[in-house]
Amino acid sequence: MTSESDRDDTGRGIRQSMSDLHTWVGLLLGWILYAMFLTGTVSYFKDELSQWARPELARLAERPDAAVVAQRVANTFDKIAPGTSQWSVRLPDDRNNSAYAFWRTAPREPGQRGFAEGHFDPATGERVNSRDTLGGEFFYRFHFQFHYMPVVWGRWLAGIAAMFMLVAIISGVITHKKIFVDFFTFRWGKGQRSWLDAHNALSVFGLPFHAMITFTGLVTLMAMYMPWGSQVAIKSPAERQQMQAELSPFVQPGKPTGQKVPLASVETMVRQAQERWGHDNIGRVNASLPGDAAARVVVTRGDPGRVSMSPQYMEFEGTTGKLLSVRDHVGIAAETRGVLYALHLGRFSDTVTRWLYFLVSFTGTAMVGTGLVMWTVKRRQKLPNPQRPYFGFRVVERLNIASIAGLSVAMAAFMWGNRLLPTTLAGRSNWEIDLFFMIWAASLLHALIRPAKAAWIEQLWAAAALLALLPVLNALTTQRPLWHSLAQGDWIFAGIDLMCWVLAALHAHLAIRAARHQVKAPAKRKTERQAAMAAAQSGAAE
Amino acid sequence: MSHLLAFTLSLTGFAALACAMNRQQRDLFGRALPPNTTRVLRLAGTAALLGALGLLVVRYGWGFGLVTFSGHTSIAAGIVMSVLIGYVRTQAQKPRHR
Hints:
Mean pLDDT of chain B: 90
Radius of gyration of chain A: 27 Å
Helix content of chain A: 55-70%
Order of helices and strands of chain A: HHHHHEEEHHHHHHHHEEEEHHHHHHH
Low-confidence stretches of chain A: 1-10, 519-529, 535-542
Structural class of chain B: mainly alpha
Radius of gyration of chain B: 16 Å
Largest interface: A-B, 26 and 23 residues
Structural class of chain A: alpha+beta
Order of helices and strands of chain B: HHH
Number of strands of chain A: 7
Oligomer: heterodimer
Strand content of chain A: 5-15%
Number of helices of chain B: 3
Distance between the termini of chain A: 28 Å
Mean pLDDT of chain A: 88
Largest sheet of chain B: none
Strand order of the largest sheet of chain A: 3-2-1-4-5-6-7
Helix content of chain B: over 70%
């Protein structure tokens, strides 16, 4: 790098300035990015985590017929929400063992937009009483809007972080000049060099993914970040409705006629959609103004196997069941957005692809983590007094501990909370979330008062212990222990139990390595001493 | 099945490409391989990766195919590198034990 700047007399070389940019852009929002990456990574198994979080809901051995379930839930709505202006049911599938629905609670009153939500038993269509929890949905929402702040702020923060990430990726690629020459290079036990090699490998192997996920992440919320284009182009309410139809299958309810006419057979409508898209390829059933003469029913296509989130749906007249329209494709701009959106969420994935998403995303998390740690590794050697580092160094060091090791502890604690908090607790799902943040805050406090190395080791061990014991807790508090899940072939529960052990082993490994780091310290000091002696000798020679 | 085949192709592809690299040849074989062998390895590795891409695109279409290709290659490259690290480390320890 010195040669670079030597060559460039007018200033520092592009690589050096890109390297500085990479370092500081990466650091400034690195902790937020790490949290976004890790919670986003586990969100690829959001539905599985949500099933795990509601052990009362029985496992579905077979995927139920969407048409029958849709009719059952529609019948239930006649009882529990008569006069609602809109309901929407996500039908059970291979990853969801219940039908989940939300509906408007303030029927047809202007200015009010209350929603209620619930899970429904596919076998009966009745609402099920499960513990109040967000499950995997919490990590998913936290991933792009955080918590304890207005949703809009959180999404802006996520957008700014994603922009920083994009800058970090591009500047990182420019800084790392020998991507192909160093492709498989790893120099073991060389301190900073090894960290750099690891960071490079984690970044380069997943580079297509990291670039894609960051860019598409921005696209998912682009209408919020940059609304001006559509504001200029689209003015009348009719146009706005048309644009909405390009983006989403949720039609705004029209004006009710006031004339009461019951819904025609929802089952028959879903059957028509099944004929078109396949028996097991139905996503949602949305009804607007059910029970009114102006009712409409929309049946949407499922996500699997289709790399696009653009809505595909069939619209039916609610009272007669007559097919009104079929939307198979959208405009090219909307489809571009639909594809990029789908790439980010990966909901089209089969099981193998979902695991690929999870694993590569995990390397992305590790990429951010190694980058953060490297900032301290690089500077520790140059500290004038390693016992008393300067303030900025200490801040970064402690924040690293809390945001990396502490987040693992907090996420595991969230799952412990799911099993341990009493089901009768008022506002239970909020308590789970509060617990997550309390533990995370405690980990920061712990990182501040303990010596850095001890804090790393203790928190990594704490995460390992919480994860390792989670399957035990699950066995004690639910009817679905690991041996039962394995015998039943319930791979969602068994998979989460086993993954907890894999992750516990990973954290234990990191804890042991962090503890061993002490052994290496004298060796490093020795080389320093040798260097000092060499310097002294050369000084004496002069 | 296509997933497994594509993954195997990616894995062998990256293994061949790694063996075609200077530093890795010294680590693995203790010497640089003849230029012709290196060239064949590089060709074979590239062909295997392109084969994986072709297979996935034919099987799943461009959208899904490219996504899965990117996933398989990332994981395969990671595994090849882990194996290389493990191999080099065990080799480095052996003489000391003797």
